[in-house]
Amino acid sequence: MTDDKRALAPAFVALALLWGAGSGHAQAVQPPPDLADTIIAHIGMVPARHNTFHESKHIAALTHDLTSSGELIYTRPGHVQKITREPRPETLIVQGTTLSLARGQGPARVVDLSHHAQLAALVEAIRAPLDGDITALRHDYTLAAQGDVAHWTLQLTPQPAMARYVRTITIDGQNNAMTVIRVVQANGDTQVMRIDPPA
């Protein structure tokens, strides 16, 4: 994956199942719902979102972190916008399998995600939770969840094809909202996005 393609990426539950109730004769007991599935389903219940974000990137080759801020917009199904206001204007839009990136007043660069599997997997790390699409998320990542539905952490470990580029993606959240997204690249560089609650 080229540096340009990395720049295009970040850069985006089912209700608790009832236990089988006994009624005088034995019944099979349903297993508890998987916490990761529950978290993703809760996130996916919100059809539209508009939040501000603050992002920092730690790159080993640089002497200081890179910071940016702007807005995140999501509309079901699968439409995500990351609008960077500071330090320089930039607009990243994902719709279906199309990703576009425009910097300043320049023309947008358009990428067909169906031809770039690694970039598509990075996009789905954010978009699939917003869509409530656990199947898409599990296609590219192994999931591990901690906490409960009120305060949770979701760790995404990429499948081998992605592991050359990304070590882990960790998402912290509360209830149906993602609050922090951390991406650790294979070389140790990190990107942390903090998502503010709606005003």
From TrEMBL:
UniProt-listed Pfam families: LolA_3
Transmembrane segment boundaries: none
Top-level division of the source organism's lineage: Bacteria
InterPro entries found in the cross-reference section: LolA/LolB/LppX, OM_lipoprot_carrier_LolA-like
Protein name: Outer membrane lipoprotein carrier protein LolA
Span of the signal peptide: 1-28
UniProt keyword annotations, A-Z: Lipoprotein, Signal
